[in-house]
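Hey, quick one: can you model this chain's 3D structure?
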Amino acid sequence: MKFNLALVAASILFATLSAGAQQTTQPQMKVDSSNRTLSVAATETVSVEPDLAILHIGFDTGPEDAKAAYADGARASNAIIAAVKQAGIPETSIRSESQYLDRDFSNKQHKFVLHQQWTVKVAPERAAEILDIAVTAGATSSGEIDWTVKDVPALESQALDRAATRAKQNADVLAKGMGVRLGALIYVNNQMSAPQTPRPMFGFAMKTAAAPPAPPLSIEPHQVSEEATVYAVFAIE
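Sure thing. Here's the predicted structure for all 237 residues.
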């Protein structure tokens, strides 16, 4: 019997600790007649069309000795960036992401591959065009696109405002349904999160001289979303 009581007590303690770990952003409220409070939570999401596309473009050279891989990489690097700039993209919109010479372990020969990657900021309507220009110039490892907005804080504020409004509305409805009057706000907390959309990286084969030119990819922008959750505690009268 003692063993059973100990087991039950341990189970209750574990459940209590687990519940506390899952709600670290919410205050621990005691439930008794002296605590006349009402708590609500509300989540709202705001979605808009992007006004900025961030392209990830890059290339990998073929396996060669280190000196040859670096030389081929330098030629490809300058050709890609020159083509992007010639398309009207300013230098301030182009940023290096990574570049490194790496040993190729896919074969037993002592070969190396040069990798380089950039981010290029463009208007969403030019994303497909600039990606096509980069790939045509030799960007063989490209295609990932981040769809975003120039003013992210403004989008976050919209989501937070909607969540706060919804939390207050929920509190009013709940108080009315319970037959009590809503009092002063005692506690409020919020959490922001941006829903993630898949951004695949496409690998492109090097184009041969005999291959006919292909049209740009058909690319449709993803909407940009911001999500806000508001947790609020009100006094009840």
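One thing worth noting: The longest helix spans residues 152-178.
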